[in-house]
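Per reviewer request, we include the raw input and output of the structure prediction for the construct analysed in the revised manuscript.
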Amino acid sequence: RRGVAAAAGALVLAFTALAPTAASARPVPGSFADMAAKVTPAVVNISAERIRQTAQQQQPRQGVPGDPRAMPFPEGSPFREFFRRYYNGPRGDRPQMPGQRPQMRRAKALGSGFIVDPDGYVVTNNHVIRGASRIEVILHDGKKYDAKLIGTDSRTDLALLKITADRKFPSVKWGDSDKARVGDWILAVGNPFGLGGTVTAGIVSARGRNISNRTIVDFLQIDAPINRGNSGGPTFNMDGDVVGVNTAIYSPNGGSIGLGFAIPSNLARQVIDELRTNGKISRGWLGVQIQPVTDDIAKALKIEGPKGALVSAVVPDSPAAKAGLQSGDVILRWDGKTVASVRDLVRKVSATKTGSTVDVELLRDGSQKTITVNVGANQDGAQRAGMRRGPDAPAPAAVGKLGLGLANLTPETRQRFNVGEDVAKGALVLSVRPDSPAAEKGLRPGDVITRVGNTEIASADQVAKAVDAATKAGREALLIRVVRDGTTRYLGLPLKS
């Protein structure tokens, strides 16, 4: 399948080097040999041993008449791998049968890493060593050391190990990833497919790549061939400094096609330093649900173009709630720095030290204001903003301009559409006309409209009145707040005549 995969390795690919056109650009290296000789002693192979419980393994018997476990296809047959799932289970292990006892099986994962301190501190990816019962670090000279896990961070997929010996280890220095430009030469070193130290070269292909919503990393994209086994290995600039940690590849077949991704060194260094000091990562927490400011939302809020992050809900008793942040606020600047997008705000808040005080500039009801937030510690798990329950209103209503059929929240409609008591009041969407603005924006039956413009909604009639008022005022779009399955979002709906 096509997709982003963990770069547990590297595969050599041909690449074409183009001569620089700018006079200030570095010339094409005649050889990478001197730099490779300088940095490779500090690059290590990592073997992570995991213990898995499986059914008793039984090898498929070939050529035994009448045996239901007999694999009828010889080695090399195109059907053998397909039917292995039937004879041996999805991972090559025979499924546990009645009366069988589970057994423990040892498995090893191979990856890469690099030493950043002569005392033996080793950087790698979290996914390389995750769940390992034993971690072994193999140096360039073949010597092996048992490693101690100092700490991990799943949000950036980084881990720090420590090896100990009566010697100083070869090490490399962190570089400045902010200075890595698209088109700069880089060198990747790692342990592809467990083959051992391998060097590949390429360029920085792009910056600021978002390849997963589960991370807070804006990756460097590189075309130096990396593949399974290269995870955790370093990307070097032409000064021999680490500017990235190789982490993932985009591939249709698991092999390198020139789309590799590395964690920028400036982020990696910050995480590794904190792991070394504290053994864990403490990130800032604001306590809001946020969403992008779309073109329609920008029009509804009368701001110039999509920018900032829209607060859709505030977690009760959170730093945001205590500071006075409100649903519908658009956060424009965090600690004096412009917020370009939702991800940008997430990164900025996460990078803020717990307990610090930050000024937040925001847009509320058409006016800009600044509030002060005391940043809290990151919370595990999602927390939702709660609302107090209000009285149900009796009358249904239809809003033809938006293409909506609405009703009030009643015990019957709540039960029918599974609307919880945490949604205290609002107008329930009963139907959506297929060719309507509401349908275009993804509204569907069961959604609850809780706010239109600056008006908190307690009944379906209020939605109709707010739409009529906005139309008479000549508004191009209308901002509405919608709750769906416990999640709050804002939508900008164009007002069509």
